[in-house]
Design goal:
Layout (H helix, E strand, L loop, with lengths): L4 H21 L73 E5 L1 H9 L4 E4 L2 E5 L3 E4 H4 L3 E4 L3 E5 L3 E7 L13 H7 L3 E3 L2 E4 L4 E7 L5 E3 L2 E3 L5 E13 L2 E3 L4 E16 L2 E3 L4 E6 L2 E8 L2 E3 L10 E6 L6 E8 L2 E3 L8 E6 L9 E6 L2 E12 L2 E6 L2 E13 L2 E5 L3 E2 L14 E5 L2 E6 L2 E3 L8 E4 L2 E6 L2 E3 L6 E4 L5 E3 L2 E3 L10 E4 L5 E2 L31
Parallel strand pairs: 1-3, 2-5, 3-6, 4-7, 5-8, 6-9, 7-10, 8-11, 9-12, 10-13, 11-13, 12-14, 13-15, 14-16, 15-17, 15-18, 16-19, 17-20, 18-21, 19-22, 20-23, 21-24, 22-25, 23-25, 24-26, 25-27, 26-28, 27-29, 27-30, 28-31, 29-32, 30-33, 31-34, 32-35, 33-36, 34-37, 35-38, 36-39, 37-40
Length: 538
């Protein structure tokens, strides 16, 4: 019985609830629901003979007054932008003008130093002449935000906004000091534009922060759009447009940074690179669902749409995923690449654990270049218009190149002149499987392995290349199997596979027999019967 009593209690409570509900909604004498009883009045009745008090006007529902500095809605339009809550002060309350002429730097700094937390930007063009410093430990948690209508014009050197924290730990909660959680957590910049108006103007700089979020920003015509320095942890960059800056779009500049997610952003036409990591100690970088293009100056040093260069860094770059992006342009820039990864750090340690998956890459000198790295997976991508190479991997160990499409795309301008070569040089412990390679021009072969060791090539489809389909030069202890290698206009001396030097290799000789004579096409099958009246004209 003791086990059943909770169920009995629940049933009793349910019965009581139903009884109360029925009593509340039961119809009154006229068939309508009984009205709620009015509570007794607490007001004293007016003196006898006194005039009744006028009715207090009640605002009409669903017609909020426009927020300060927001235009009134047009007839028939409920609102034009999310209103600023009346309790929140904006930068105009601290003296900002927003006319693009007045210097609003002091007003912005005053708003930050007041410790109000929400630095709200109504519509306007706010001219700054020096960085607005957000010292989080002093002013407390701070977010600078707008609704997309405000512009900061940075008319002086340095970043428009400089976030400064004191976090010295890792991403592990036990290393975060109480003052960081209480005073510094989750700084943010959301929903406005920064435009550079000085040769050394930058967008946003951050050092020592924990959980920085940058969301729905447009940053253009600066030196570097987003500049992360010294040490940061747990950064999110989402839905941003980092566009037409002279330097780098997102610059991880010799920074110690673990956990950074870059999602759903346009990072384009930045002269010094799109996403660039130089030296430092970077882990857990995820780039997902972005359009990254044209981030190289034809007159500048070689760079890439995504460049991870561990040279000179204490820990280099590792644990990186570049997934589901479009990366392209510009082949006219010398040494241009869509993805370039250099894995060896200052101590000579080779870094890696890198995934490049499900991207579309085109129109550069080298689509993907990997050097001095380890633990690299390249799978599910579509390559074309690699004017020198679609894929170039050197001095790398532990490489998996899974199913990828290496195409030419002749319908695109320049598609007929790109080489699209695939070259592995001085690599070890590599697996190449499921590659579909088409129409490599001008090189020694469609796929070339040179001075490599312990490589397994299987299930490759290599078609219509100028030279042999596959060239193994000084390759040892490797295996080739299950491949289809063909050339439609092959001369009599054409060889699908060429092996030069090396030892201990297995190349199955029955993989590349002569093409059989074409057989006649089978007769066309009869048309399917119509179903539910849906025939050929359905």
């Amino acid at each position: 019985m003791r086990r059943l009593w909770p169920w009995a209690l629940a049933a009793a409570l349910a019965a009581v609830a139903v009884t109360v509900l029925v009593a509340v909604i039961a119809p009154g004498p006229g068939g309508e629901a009984a009205p709620d009883p009015e509570p007794p009045s607490t007001e004293a009745p007016p003196p006898e003979g006194a005039a009744p008090a006028p009715d207090t006007p009640v605002p009409a529902p669903d017609t909020p007054a426009p927020a300060p500095d927001m235009p009134a809605p047009a007839p028939g339009v409920t609102s034009v932008a999310p209103p600023v809550p009346p309790s929140v002060r904006t930068v105009r309350d601290f003296g900002a003008v927003g006319d693009a002429a007045a210097d609003d730097t002091a007003a912005f700094q005053k708003a930050v130093d007041a410790g109000v937390g929400d630095i709200v930007l109504p519509r306007g063009r706010y001219r700054l002449t020096r960085p607005v410093v957000i010292d989080l430990n002093r002013v407390g948690p701070t977010a600078v935000w707008g609704t997309g209508t405000a512009t900061l014009v940075m008319a002086g050197p340095g970043p428009a906004l400089r976030f400064i924290g004191t976090h010295e730990g890792t991403a592990a909660p036990r290393t975060v000091k109480p003052n960081v959680w209480e005073r510094q957590r989750s700084p943010a910049a959301v929903g406005f534009e920064i435009v550079g108006a000085h040769a050394d103007a930058c967008g946003i700089e951050a050092a020592g922060t924990m959980q920085l979020t940058l969301d729905r920003l447009t940053i253009r015509k600066t030196l570097h759009a987003v500049h992360l320095v010294k040490r940061n942890r747990n950064v999110i960059v989402t839905a941003c447009h980092l566009y037409e800056n002279r330097g780098v779009g997102l610059f991880l500049d010799d920074v110690d940074l673990h956990q950074i997610n870059v999602t759903g952003s346009h990072i384009s036409y930045n002269g010094g690179g799109g996403i660039v990591v130089r030296a430092g100690n970077v882990r857990n970088l995820q780039v997902t669902g972005c359009d990254i293009e044209g981030n190289m100056d034809a007159d500048g040093p070689p760079t890439a749409n995504v460049l991870l260069d561990s040279t000179g860094g204490k820990g280099g770059s590792g644990e990186v995923a570049i997934v589901g992006c479009t990366l392209q342009h510009a082949n006219s820039a010398p040494g241009s690449a869509n993805v370039r990864i250099i894995g060896r750090d200052a101590g000579g340690v080779v870094r890696g654990n890198i995934l490049i998956a499900d991207n579309v890459l085109s129109d550069v000198q080298v689509n993907v270049q990997i050097a001095k790295a380890r633990g690299v997976s390249i799978v599910g991508n579509t390559f074309w218009k690699g004017f020198a190479h679609n894929l170039l991997v050197e001095d790398t160990q532990g490489l998996v190149v899974g199913p990828n499409l290496f195409d030419r795309a002749p319908s695109y301008q320049g598609g007929e002149t790109s080489a699209n070569a695939i070259l592995l040089r001085r690599c070890a412990d590599a697996t190449l499987t499921g590659l579909h390679v088409t129409d490599v021009r001008g090189g020694p072969a469609g796929v070339v392995l040179q001075d490599c060791w312990r490589c397994n090539l299987s299930g490759l489809t290599i078609l219509d290349c100028d030279g042999p389909g596959l060239l193994l030069r000084n390759v040892s202890d490797s295996r080739v199997s299950g491949c289809l290698i063909r050339r439609g206009d092959a001369p009599k001396d054409w060889a699908p596979v060429v092996v030069v030097g090396g030892e201990g290799n297995t190349v199955q000789p029955d993989l590349f027999p002569p093409l059989p004579p074409p057989s006649p096409l089978p007769a066309a099958p009869p048309p399917l019967p119509a179903v539910d009246g849906q025939g050929d004209g359905g």
